[in-house]
Amino acid sequence: MNPDLHMAGELKAGGGNLFTIFGEPDVLIHDDGPRLRVELRGVDIFKPSLGEVASSEPDEIACWFIDTDYNEESFFVRQAYFPAADLPYKAIRTTLKAEIDEDARESLKATVSRPFPRPKSGRIAVKVINHLGDEAMKVFGV
Q1: Mean of the pLDDT values across residues 103-115?
Q2: Taking Cα atoms as reference points, which of 30, 44, 31, 45 lies closest to residue 112?
Q3: How far is CA 28 from the centre of its chain?
Q4: Tens digit of pLDDT for each residue in 30-42?
Q5: What percent of the chain has pLDDT over 90?
Q6: 23 CB-contact burial (10 Å; exposed 0-12 / middle 13-18 / buried 19+)
Q7: Which ranges of the chain would DSSP assign to H, the alpha helix?
Q8: Domain ranges of the chain
C-alpha cells in the first residue's frame, strides 16, 4: 500500500473516506472431478481513515459473480449471488405481479456456487462488490 493512501489525518473528524481500496476476494475452488464449485470466504478492505486492512465476512458482501469461462476480454456474469442483501422481494413481487419461489430466493444468498463444468478457456473469474459499490475481481487458472 502506498503511504499516500494513509490519509486519516487529512480527513475531517467524523467525515467519510474519499475512497476504499479492495484486496483480493478470499475464494476456495472445490474440484468435484469434471465440475467445479467456488466458495466465497470474504474479501479484504483497506480503510484509509484507520490506515488498516479489515477482512469482510461473506455476509458483509452485497453481491458476487462468477464468470465460469473467463476469456480475459470481458467479464460475463454466469452465476450471481447476494449473500448479505435483503433484496426488496415485496417490491419485486409487486412489480412482477408474481410470487417468488422461496427456495430460489434463498439460493441467491449462497456463498458456495452451483457446480459448473470445467471452462474451455482454463480460467474463471470471481467479482465481488460491497455495499458502497467498490469491486474486486480475481482470475483463477483451473
Answers
A1: 86
A2: 30
A3: 13
A4: 999 899 999 999 8
A5: 39
A6: middle
A7: 89-96, 102-107
A8: 3-141
What is the pLDDT at residue 120? 94
Q: Are 39 and 30 in contact (CB under 8 A)?
A: yes
Distance of CA 113 to the CA centre of its chain: 12
pLDDT at 101: 76
Distance CA 17, CA 38 (A): 31
Q: pTM above 0.70?
A: yes
Residue 103 has pLDDT above 70, yes or no: yes
Nearest CA to 119 out of 73, 82, 78 is that of 78
Residues β-bridged to residue 137: 127
Could you identify the residue written with the cell 486519516? Answer: 8
> In a 10 Å sphere around its CB, with 0-12 CB exposed, 13-18 middle and 19+ buried, how is residue 128 labelled?
buried
Q: Where are the beta strands (DSSP E) in 1-142?
A: 21-32, 35-47, 52-56, 63-67, 79-81, 116-117, 123-129, 135-141
- What is d(CA 52, CA 1) in angstroms, rounded to the nearest whole number? 10
